[in-house]
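Sequence and fold:
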Amino acid sequence: MVVRRCSLPALAAASGWLFFDQSRNGRRRWCSDKKCGSNARVRKFRAVRAD
């Protein structure tokens, strides 16, 4: 188990969310997939579509 910082830049810079990475491969990126993971995927999608 590893303690990680949420990789969503806006949230990590503002509050520095930390979480325990309990995933099988130890590569979890977001504190919550429902909130941060979804926001990151939407931002990436919109950035690609804007080009």
About this structure: The radius of gyration is 12 Å.
